[in-house]
Amino acid sequence: MLTPGHDETTSEPDLWRLVERRTVYEGRFVQLYQDVLEGPAAPEFYEHVRVADGVRVVALDAEGRVVLVEDQFYLPQRRMLHLPGGGIEAGEAPALAAARELAEETGWRAASWQPLGSIHPLPTSTAARTHLFLATGLTAGSVHRDATEQYMTVRQVPLAEAVELVRSGVVTEAGSVTALLLAAQSRPSGD
After folding, report:
1. For the whole model, what pTM was predicted?
2. Is residue 176 one of the residues assigned to a domain?
3. Residue 19 is part of which domain span?
4. Quick check: is 191 in a domain?
5. Position 44 in a domain
6. What is the mean pLDDT of residues 61-81?
């Protein structure tokens, strides 16, 4: 599918080419790079971060309720309502990370997993993707949160209400917004 205004008769310009990569900062979870590029209209420097890919899970129970979590986020300086999820560990498959994060944060386990796709939430700043999943056939288990998640709370709301929370600006985290809208679109009316 082409984007509006795209003309198939013109070729795409050459992509920018990496000349040199400088490591500006290397931490436990994030690395900051400054690339020197060449190519048509390339900037002199391009700064970007490398972080692990992530996951978000729409966990839907038999009554059509979605499991949401609420936790403190440092940068926005507020508690935010969002879907369970987190970072993918090195060598871990996205589906396994989704199951691990759901169980750790909420205690729920799922019998059935459906990929909803993946997004690039900040493509000008990082190549990291967020993989989105729909989980059904839920059974309760125990929570095993990280120390930083000790004040996380869990809430269940009907899928339609979760979509309204997106529309009203209550749920704003990119992976959660996308996954909830995709899950609602994929469910038959009345679910």
Report:
1. 0.88
2. yes
3. 1-50
4. no
5. yes
6. 95
